[in-house]
What we know:
By secondary structure, the chain is of the alpha/beta class.
Amino acid sequence: xxxxxxxxxxxxxxxxxxxxxxxxxxxxxxxxxxxxxxxxxxxxxxxxxxxxxxxxxxxxxxxxxxxxxxxxxxxxxxxxxxxxxxxxxxxxxxxxxxxxxxxxxxxxxxxxxxxxxxxxxxxxxxxxxxxxxxxxxxxxxxxxxxxxxxxxxxxxxxxxxxxxxxxxxxxxxxxxxxxxxxxxxxxxxxxxxxxxxxxxxxxxxxxxxxxxxxxxxxxxxxxxxxxxxxxxxxxxxxxxxxxxxxxxxxxxxxxxxxxxxxxxxxxxxxxxxxxxxxxxxxxxxxxxxxxxxxxxxxxxxxxxxxxxxxxxxxxxxxxxxxxxxxxxxxxxxxxxxxxxxxxxxxxxxxxxxxxxxxxxxxxxxxxxxxxxxxxxxxxxxxxxxxxxxxxxxxxxxxxxxxxxxxxxxxxxxxxxxxxxxxxxxxxxxxxxxxxxxxxxxxxxxxxxxxxxxxxxxxxxxxxxxxxxxxxxxx
Length: 474
């Protein structure tokens, strides 16, 4: 540890965002970066704690104190080599991870100024690409072949890990480009797609085969996959959004959040979308239902389209700003979070439920909302929601439903693979990703339900180990 007292004299310094008047006109990444000297100074704040809670809280087990010290000393290459041992794609997590490590940083628990772990991580990764520390490796092949279905963070992690262990890996993706949730679910202003392309080129150079536009179970029968590969890993995500089946749901102008986000990313990728199918918020009043990150992404996208007004509503109460005594560490802090998208223009409201959508001639014109209150429920830690009768009509030309996703349970592809292996009972998945179907594994959101990118990557690591053990059995 180079400077054991830096945390006493060096305040936390974030890189911040590009100016609103600049970033609102494009889909370029909004987050800026510090210069190398300031970044090293920020790394010096790491205290090298006796018990590094940051490491404990990180789903992939990053060794933050070790690479922070290397970064502070200017040993960027050594810092990257430590980082890549645990995190396959730090250029992704360093941009979009909500940083549970920082919530567990001792400096966060003590003075609410954690080390800038996430920003330091992406700086190390970008330096590694820029300076050529990252080069394609050519593993010695072992003659075994593995198919990975789905190219999101879980699938890419499985592919990366197994390829470097000598397996011949083919990744199948139903969409036009590789990347899954990273490609289609996260706006470019948070994760530029050239970052994904750069990683995919590296993985291809290392021998991984990618087959986009291939829908396993449709254009490629599941039985053929089982015949051609020694193991199959399903990393197909959790893509069924939670609906809001109230009166007027079928009106033109009511969409799922992912319909907007995926289409916008396709447009930016150069994919032609018929004019009649385009979703545009230009000159419209937008209502986003759901207060999470995906809803925030809809806010940012609508602002870039040129919406006249954007409102985001949430059924839960407004959380406190800064610290919430109801969710002390190690619980995830339920606090008010203001994203870069919110800063660009958005009215946020809480304790509101949606009663019905109102339209004329099949086209959305407004939404009836009602205030709710949350009351204690006897014998339960969960409060009960109670409508108050205080109703209001909001004008709206577009509504985006951003209320999470339905757990995938038994996906059709999983059932098809089960039948192909002769398994006719309910399919189970153990903690290591092995299913009750011979040769078939599953990981990521397809198993857990919608979660964080970094948790999907952690599941990919564990499942890759499980596949390796399975294929090495005599």
